[in-house]
């Protein structure tokens, strides 16, 4: 389990780290940020690890902490840590696990982390029942997209990759056409052939045929060169490198 701490009071951040490691020394702290700007810069780097959980202060040094939640993956759970109780209703409209008032009490932190584990790690019996009840999802052969006042049907063979940018998902074709699609990347992973498409990081799902070359860096880091070029560098997330290599070798 790894967490990201967003807190503009240095002493509070240090105390929070100590309390988290007192609860479980194996929890990895991915980083500590005091501002909205620095936090969003972290999330904009596609080679950075996504946290399993956010500890988020409401008032940061440059802006409202809720601005972060408006610009990142909404599926990341959050434990709010703040001195202000009046934001609790707004907090629970997000994927909020708990709302802890400062100074943070160790017992309350333990209860919040226990609650997180119950929510994200259901019991085996519950997991099995969910799997059994989940209907089979058909792999799409084409995607319906809007082009002005027209509707176009794009065969999946023409898709180079899907990307997620500025709160929207896009389909990019081999001939550089770009369309918005009404699916999340998580859903698109389910709707595409896993032998042909791979989600290399949180922002892009690529087709094997769109990969023109792969550049290796130290520490196992991989950079993809795609056709057509997306206009930004595409790295395989470190935690997906092994799976990506296995996928390439199928």
UniProtKB/TrEMBL annotation:
UniProt cross-references to InterPro entries, sorted A to Z: CheY-like_superfamily, LytR-like, LytTR_DNA-bd_dom, Sig_transdc_resp-reg_receiver
Domain HTH LytTR-type stretches: 143-250
Organism listed in the record: Dyadobacter psychrotolerans
Domain Response regulatory: start-end pairs: 2-117
Keywords, comma-separated and alphabetical: Phosphoprotein
4-aspartylphosphate, modified sites: 57
Name of protein: Response regulator transcription factor
One MF term in the entry's GO annotations: DNA binding
Keyword match Magnesium: no
Keyword Ion transport in annotation: no
A Pfam family: Response_reg
